[in-house]
Design goal:
- 4 copies of one chain form a homotetramer.
- Chain A is 43% helix and 21% strand.
- The first copy, chain A, has 401 residues and is of the alpha/beta class.
- The first copy, chain A, has a 5-stranded parallel beta sheet with strand order 3-2-1-4-5, with helices on both faces. Chain A has a 5-stranded antiparallel beta sheet with strand order 10-9-8-13-14.
- In chain A, helix 1 crosses helix 8, helix 3 crosses helix 4 and helix 4 packs across helix 5.
- Chains in contact: A-B, A-C, A-D, B-C, B-D, C-D.
- The interface between A and B is large, with 98 and 98 residues.
Chain lengths: 401, 401, 401, 401
């Protein structure tokens, strides 16, 4: 029987689902399966072992790509400049990694001359959309296969997947399975499923790994200074750091104080509400610090309007429209607003809290002489009367009728 | 010499500025000055003494109005339903009280047949705008006098004001003057001036009074459940409370855990950036809990669009357009979205942090059977393919060119 | 063989597609088919004949519902208050009728105890979405069948459909088939297909029927006055008219001057661009006149913000979200803004053009004494200086750096 | 007596107001007055005579600057790419010229070492704001003088200004004074005052000069093709034209058909409503044609979001914030969206009407095979079901409750 695809490249994680997918694709869809693992900082201990696992299951080739630096510099920094977050603050860590993974998987597909692309996502999540919209942009004519969407009850259920794996000699991880579905990268972690599906129940402590429980955090506050250059973090406490090290270092420092947890009921793109737990220590502090700096050096109107730009940018990331002409246009707007965003933000970390406590920039628009009520006051108080008169003229005319 | 006004009613606080204003108005502007103190929860120990002080300085009449309940029910609750906050989270406590004060001062003016209204605000703040826009709406033809805007260097400086007070036998408060300029009401506190005008310096602990320093907060978390009915908080831990008691009680509970401090560089309406410190324990937790509930019971599109409504509502409050046909229209929109917002939000308070950890509502749109990846899954996975195909058709067509 | 549905109610037009659908449903999907024709002003000469035709093909029951008045009063007037139009001005005539048709079809379904609902739309248009989203709201558990979406090449092609009709003794209209696909109701007409699919070719004159060609229009201008009460048109030239008569009368008057044609490339909801021709004489003039009046009696801020509301409202109509809590909330906003919209707009009609040339309202906010540069000027010119100083303070501070 | 300014540069038009201002400034404000006339296409017959007039009145120097090309290329084209218009369609002709005039006047001021800048606008219009905000950006420390704002009743009244002129030997134009206040440039004309201040009265035919009355227009339609390259018009009927010639030519062609008149009640920045008449033949057709092309080559999401950008851009122009970091950021967004906007739009002009009747572009996203219902149909109809299912899942869940 002729298969739907000759050669399919699969975005591979090494987990149960994508491992089963390798075999299932070979049996049902493709003559040849090639896997690609993209390292975006998921901290898997043994990427080599994951690569080999795919080969054992039947992949004809199995690639690993270290994309950590590209992830931070070309994806995370753009999201940061856009103050990107969703609904109750989710910093979009998983969402922002998907287009990069899709892009690199597609690059492999083009190198090996594949005619199809595959991912392991189910039909009810956001990630399927992010993979496929990226591929529609980058390779509009490629066939896209989504095994998990076709499995139905047969394999979607974890126990049935394990049976299938055992039947087909697919190695199953020996480490104790987390009770949660997890996605991790340098910008943060998503935690779903299990007991978390009850929106009334507090997320158990074992759901978290990047942030300490508050009772175990230091008993003294820690102050850090984050240095920015044109909207991009370049150092901590005036020590320059490369992009990836900065994020990793900050994840440690901030997580140590128990900062960066989220618990939210979220509106997915596919029309359902889900309960999501996130951890994102570095992202949490960087996002607040960046916005602080941006406001410090830009006029009000620019920043108030930028909030609409930022909101649309966040939506594009969440909904999978990273590769789109609209995102490019938003980026052009955002870059203009970052030109002055050079300076330092001082943050206090303590017991799960953080607060911006100081800000400094050569481009600061804060003018003490204007703001002060003290001796130095240079503000023209008499202008206020005329200002209010005209500001209120429309309202006054309305209520006079 | 004929004075500009026959009878002026002054929004009075009992502080140095408005006390000097009483005398200054009599000397320069009006034949008769009547003062009104509005109690919006500023916790002044002795409102009677404040009233008498105005009479001693020369006011012909001096009123006190208890507006605490009206404040919470007709102003704060509306702001809460609109998730009202400004820029970095300021819950607009001072801003939302101004139109009420203006309204009640104007009511006195109409009762006593005054021809002018006065406030003690300077020319560089937002409050002058809020008073005057309210008066332009409620009494478009009244004369408005702003003594502090006319004083110039003569009296704007605190020391000169003290000299003036002493010269005119205006009693000066014997209690040690705060190094800050403070405004307090049931919804929160604004703290400005002094050392706070240096944006690099952390706000000293003595700037705060509603929230404990974290080191002094309880060493165990506290869980509270907040009950809402159609968007309005009605109880804590299933114990019904009247509006004012609920806010006051919550200020105590939440403040005890050190929650609700803000430190931000803010864009004032008059075109300057200022450094503002706020405390708002009850507001902080109620705003987050309210939004959580609202999202739990409304579809995505309603909530995402409401964020524009909320932003405009917040601007109107901040900028002083409370009495305006636009605010009425926004209220009508918001009321529609609150009809289902009945339920309970569970919040954890600990060491300066709070987190929503549970939510329950008879109108919940969270459907575990749709969201779950487990056995109960009723989601039609096959719909996803068609969904993504059409969602991405525009992008695909674009990149095919 | 058991059919998918026991009793299906079909939104019926009497045309080829829905006639074929009656038979096809009986053969493939349902044991019983009931048809409903909704009269929204499509000017079909013989609705009785259409009803009978369905019975002849095999429908067990066939209903006609006159919904013209309900259409204008509960759908069109709401769209008018929202200044509803899409992209290049399309007044949404077809779009706004769909939810009403869906509602009435569903009412029949509930009366006859049907378990399924059906429409004749294909998979690439907007109307399928409008029908189905309405049904998902009004009858969330009903089965929905879309025959034309399932037909595939077999029947989608017109010639094949005719063959099928002849084979099954389905009467085919004897009148010459229009070369276009047409939808008509009291608010306007949509014209698609045929030569119109070439975006470079001008729409031929035979595509139009509601508007005269300009060369045949009167050689003298005509002036009309349109009277509004709270946003709703109530009369022409001070003669009161009921809602439907007013729209029909205006269609004649305005169409006689050749006014109300649209030619646009439009972005459909399903991700494709299509070329659309519309005619909407009454709608064109009413929409402009309504907006003129609204602006005449409301302050700037209300109207500028309402433009966002209107845009969202138009999107909801276009995309089929008429029955949604968001539309209800938008309506609440809009109603607030119409309270003062009582007055008269004078319009000049001539040779395909129309222009608002006069406006009058007891609630007018136009104040000649404020606006005039002449003798009566009551504007305080000196306020302008202070106004500009504070308006420009942010920019000045920025450029001083 | 020491004057407020040593050397003031005045934006000069040669009309009564700015001529009186030259003398008044010398008498009251400055030791030396220098005038600058900026030619932005106002079609004054004798700019040399205007220059000399200023010298006769007492100006120490008098400059003319031809800025017509700079106006079209650096101001008008930017406005066109932003589809810039205000409220009921005003193409912002006067508004978009003000920042250029302000810039060039300031350049003269810097060349001659002036310490003050002056304009002849009154306190109730928008132009004062546009001049002054530009100067605050370009020369934040310059003194700004607005004679007409200080005149008061003495000179604001036209008759009194004539008396003053005669008393001071200021030459008064011998040509019959227009009953209107007029501003003209290459992009259009504004007409105010006189009978136009009555919003119920139709604008008389003598208010118009760029557009023929419809009864005098040709009796046959004229078709033109407008060629664009990256959003900029480059030719008519495939004949390349330089920017200024193209606009001038188009003003003639379009005006000959009586197209491009506006009559609107407008919300000024200073809080008043005014009645404005505009003529803008070229602008009217170019704006529609440009938008048509833009939509033809960009995906829906880009264009729908750009409408917010365009609206803000228009506001910035109207309100005088041309020189601002926000405008720069919006420009960056807009430029991105113009990259594909190369192609030709065919327009029909006839009897005061115009209609886009054809469009062609190598970057067209219109795909007949997707849009057509005919034989060539390549659209996947089956995707629609899944699309609608997920699109409507939120609504369905809501109404199921």
């Amino acid at each position: 029987m002729k298969k739907e695809a000759k050669k399919v490249v699969l975005a591979y994680s090494g987990g149960l689902d994508t491992s089963v997918a390798v075999k299932w694709l070979l049996e049902n869809k493709a003559e040849e399966v090639i896997t690609v693992v993209i390292d975006v900082g998921q901290k898997e201990e043994n990427l080599e072992a994951i690569r080999d696992k795919a080969l054992k299951i039947g992949a004809s080739q199995s690639f690993i790509k270290d994309a950590k630096k590209e992830f931070v510099e070309n994806y995370v920094w753009k999201a940061l400049k856009a103050n990107a977050s969703y609904e109750f603050g989710y910093p979009l860590a998983t969402a922002i990694a998907r287009p990069l993974i899709a892009k690199l998987v597609n690059e492999v597909a083009q190198e090996v001359g594949a005619d199809a692309l595959a991912h392991g996502c189910t039909g009810k999540g956001n990630d399927q959309v992010r993979f496929e919209l990226a591929w529609k942009a980058l390779n509009p004519n490629a066939k896209i296969i989504a095994p998990a969407r076709e499995w139905g009850a047969e394999l979607l259920d974890r126990n049935k997947a394990i049976d299938y794996a055992q039947k087909h000699n697919i190695p199953i991880s020996l480490t104790k399975k987390s009770p949660y579905s997890i996605d991790l990268n340098a910008w943060g972690k998503s935690i779903e499923c299990g007991i978390l599906e009850d929106p009334w129940v507090e997320a158990p402590e074992d759901a978290f790994s990047l942030t300490k429980p508050i009772k175990d955090t230091p008993n003294e506050p820690e102050y850090i200074e984050i240095n920015f250059k044109q909207g991009i973090p370049t150092g901590i406490n005036n020590k320059e750091l490369d992009s990836l090290s900065l994020v990793e270092e900050l994840n440690k420092i901030v997580g140590n104080h128990g900062i960066g947890r989220y618990d939210q009921i979220e509106n997915r793109l596919v029309g359902i509400k889900s309960r999501e737990i996130y951890e994102a220590p570095a992202a949490t502090v960087l996002l607040r610090a960046h916005k602080e700096l941006e406001y410090f050096v830009n006029p009000k109107d620019s920043m108030h309007f930028k909030s609409l730009i930022d909101q649309k940018y966040s939506e594009l990331i969440y909904n999978g429209f990273w590769f789109s002409p609209l995102r490019n246009a938003l980026d052009a707007f955002i870059e203009e607003t970052q030109k002055k965003a050079t300076g330092t933000i001082r943050v206090k970390l303590f017991k799960g809290n953080f607060q911006v406590v100081g800000r400094a920039s050569e481009n600061s628009l804060y003018n003490k002489k204007l703001a002060s009520y003290g001796d130095e006051d240079i503000f023209d108080h008499s202008s206020a009367k005329g200002f209010i008169n005209l500001l209120g003229l429309g309202i006054k005319t309305y209520y006079q009728k």
